[in-house]
Amino acid sequence: MTKGTQADVNPDLKKERLKCNFNIQEVTFIIDGGKDKTLQRKKIEDVALNIAASIDEVPEECLNLKERYDNAVRKSCVYSNIVKNELLEITGLEALGSPGLRRTADAFFKDVSPFMLHLGMFVPTIIGQCTPEQQAHWLPKALEMQIIGAYAQTELGHGTFIRGLETTATYDPATEEFVLHSPTLTSTKWWAGGLGNTANHCIVVAQLYTKGQCHGTHPFIVPIRDLDTHEPFPGVKVGDVGIRMGFNTADNGFLRFNQYRIPRENMMMKNAKVMKDGTYVKVARHEKLTYGTMVFVRVTLVMEAAFNLAKAATIAVRYSAVRRQSQPKPGEPEPQILDYPTQQHKLFICIATAHALQLTGLWLWRTFEAVLADMRKGDTDSLPELHALSSCLKAVSTSDSAALIEQCRFACGGHGYMLSSNLPLLYSFVTATRTYEGDYTVLLLQTARFLVKAWEQAESGKVLTPTVAYLACAAAKEKVVWSDSVDGMIRSFQAVAAGKIAACAENIKRLTKTGTSLEDAWQLSTVRLVAASEAHCRAMICQAYWHEVTRLTASCSASVKIVMEQLATLYLVYWALETTGDLLRYSTICESELNKLQLKYEELLALIRPNAVGLVDAFDFRDEILHSTLGAYDGRVYERLMEEALKSPLNETSVQSSFHKYIRPLAKGKL
Ligand SMILES: CCCCCCCCCCCCCCCCCCCCC/C=C/C(=O)SCCNC(=O)CCNC(=O)[C@H](O)C(C)(C)COP(=O)(O)OP(=O)(O)OC[C@H]1O[C@@H](n2cnc3c(N)ncnc32)[C@H](O)[C@@H]1OP(=O)(O)O
Ligand SMILES: Cc1cc2nc3c(=O)[nH]c(=O)nc-3n(C[C@H](O)[C@H](O)[C@H](O)COP(=O)(O)OP(=O)(O)OC[C@H]3O[C@@H](n4cnc5c(N)ncnc54)[C@H](O)[C@@H]3O)c2cc1C
User: What keywords tag this UniProt record (predicted)?
Assistant: First the structure.
């Protein structure tokens, strides 16, 4: 964080920091995943942010579309050099996935870098889908930025249904080439980040045909532009998809092929190969390993959701400590808006959710690494569980994060609507994560498939995998006894999930018994399947969050343990109150217990209040990364709002030319 001198800090924020009763740094270490991770992150920030400080003379949002893109490319090149020449020196290849790199990128780009997909999907797909020989060829070029890549899977006509993609890659053994073709308008690749004007290479997912047979979708590395002139190659039509709600500097593009040829070796051949004579050879032991990059990105998006929500919470909590409004007690000064319980209700759940998603995300990452290790040994048994886990966690974390970022904006009143608060840009960025890399509903339905199967296994007494082991106890189908202890609440959330899954399974069974096909019975049950999947995910987040807090605070100071547990309890109580209907249905909770729960929630808000600013300080965002007039460390909100306003091009002259062109003639009746 940029602390400045204490004299510059808003007096209310100063007082808040004096009130904080726990060691902020200890919490930072927990959030980062350990002291070593914090130190590494800070080192990366120190290197990168020296340069970021003077990267923009004019605020990004004041530029026109084309200038914004050019500016984003300029900054991406500066940033790439820092990554290559400085950051990789500090941590080696590990830097590419490090939180330090992710965070410092935000100091350079308020919107999105057109290189994001190069690093976020092009490089990971080379690592995940290429043979070692192919990696040796492509990876150094990509890391040196000699080539820039995009990931083009989605088409104009299909995003969700990958098997429905229309682009074809037909093998020609005579020349040992694949012929890429886009047979229809709807087969045009659409949306790929970095594709429109920036990338010269692209991973293209296409239906593979060889010896007259289709073998389904496979990934190919496709050169699309000349490395020197940057002109698209003949047979390639590429461009920008048009103005979007956000991501306007991400260069999302379209791509069409007209019988465009690439060498056979450009098929990514880790999981399947086409031999010179056109023989198709399946290498992978699991059908869906070609979807591996998506699983990887879904896993990372859980922490991405936490990161962005933490930024919004920092902005809104600091602002709420500075902002004073209304006069609830006559004759007394206007209170800080953070003192209003309704404001605490809006904001403390944001801090708690950021913790819940970050700690669950770190746990998911470890699970992902364990599954990868199994797969390296040829064991793919845990892949379905990882797919189910990453699908629902990606869906719920991105959805919660987007909704709560918007809540942070509401919590900042009119000033939250200013682009300079950074809340609108944060929202438009995060709300896209609910859609991309698998739409919310679609991914929850993927998890639901796994849950219904697990339920059937539970009913027949089979051993269940860890994340659904709770279904075994629930198979008895009795209401769970309510208790407002943490364990009791988690048991109740699991009972809700189990009850909903059971109801789905029964509904499908009932429908099929009366002659409905299994596919139709599934469709007729999807509204409840989505709800069941979400309940399962919520129970899992609650369990993982509490488990991680207990584990990570075991050796912490008492005050840190207390505040971390207060937040985690708040998260559980909040969701119990949000889902009272479900609890009444699946647990023994009654009216008096609900009243007790409401009181407990209000007590928790009051307990957390003195530590609110300390808690957001513990996210440890430097001002350069927050980019917010409302959320800077020093709380000079009004001064910053005025300074930013004066940077608007509309303030460059006291009278605009439109006055002379239109308003005056209108007033004089001469228009
Ligand atoms: C070097 C210097 C560089 C410097 C550069 C500086 C730059 C600075 C920037 C730095 C910042 C970096 C930050 C990085 C952040 C990363 C951001 C990434 C941004 C991403 C942007 C968006 C990208 C995209 O959206 S890509 C497109 C994604 N598309 C999708 O997700 C499509 C969703 N659809 C599907 O996943 C499937 O089609 C599905 C699952 C819905 C259905 O598939 P299906 O084939 O039809 O399967 P189905 O019949 O339903 O099921 C069969 C069976 O298979 C199981 N299954 C399905 N999927 C999987 C799977 N993935 N894994 C395992 N199993 C799977 C399914 O469950 C079924 O099983 P059964 O029930 O047992 O039959
Ligand atoms: C900002 C952004 C960046 C992107 N970047 C990339 C990229 O770099 N590369 C890339 O390849 N793609 C990218 N995408 C595309 C993205 O992956 C898709 O938009 C996403 O997977 C959703 O697919 P869709 O657009 O086809 O939505 P659709 O599937 O058409 O969804 C529309 C609606 O239909 C519903 N629906 C669809 N199928 C079902 C079903 N089976 N059951 C019930 N409901 C269903 C959905 O829930 C949704 O409500 C990006 C998208 C965005 C917004």
Answer: FAD, Fatty acid metabolism, Flavoprotein, Lipid metabolism, Oxidoreductase, Peroxisome
Cα–ligand 1 centroid distance for 193 (angstroms) = 15
Q: What CATH number does residue 261 fall under?
A: 2.40.110.10
| Assigned domain for 205 exists | yes
- Token reading at 385: 């569980």
How much is the pLDDT for 476?
63
State how far the Cα of 477 lies from the Cα of 80, in Å rounded to an integer: 56
Residues shown for the chain: 671
Q: Are 281 and 275 in contact (CB under 8 A)?
A: yes
Question: With a cut of 0.85, is the ipTM above it?
Answer: yes
Joined tokens for residue 401: 């994060």
Sign of the torsion angle spanned by Cα atoms 91, 95, 100, 105: positive
Point out the residues of the chain with pLDDT beneath 50. none
For the question of residue 437 being annotated catalytic, the response is yes
Report if residue 345 sits inside a domain. Answer: no
Domain-embedded: residue 528: no
> How far apart (Å, rounded) are the C-alpha atoms in residues 298 and 392?
9
| Ligand 1 midpoint to CA 162 (Å) | 9
pLDDT tens-place string over residues 395-451? 999 999 999 999 999 999 999 999 999 999 999 999 999 999 999 999 999 999 999
| Rounded CA Rg of the chain | 27
CA–CA gap between residue 154 and residue 618 (Å, rounded): 39
Dihedral over Cα of 608, 610, 613, 619: its sign: negative
- Across the strands, what pairs with 239? 254
Query: What ligand has the least distance to the C-alpha of 120?
Result: 1
Domain that holds residue 274: 147-290
Cα–Cα dist 545/397, whole Å: 13
Q: How far is the CA of 571 from the centre of ligand 1 (A)?
A: 29
Residues with CB under 6 A from ligand 2: 117, 151-154, 158-160, 191-193, 247, 252, 432, 435-439, 441-442, 445
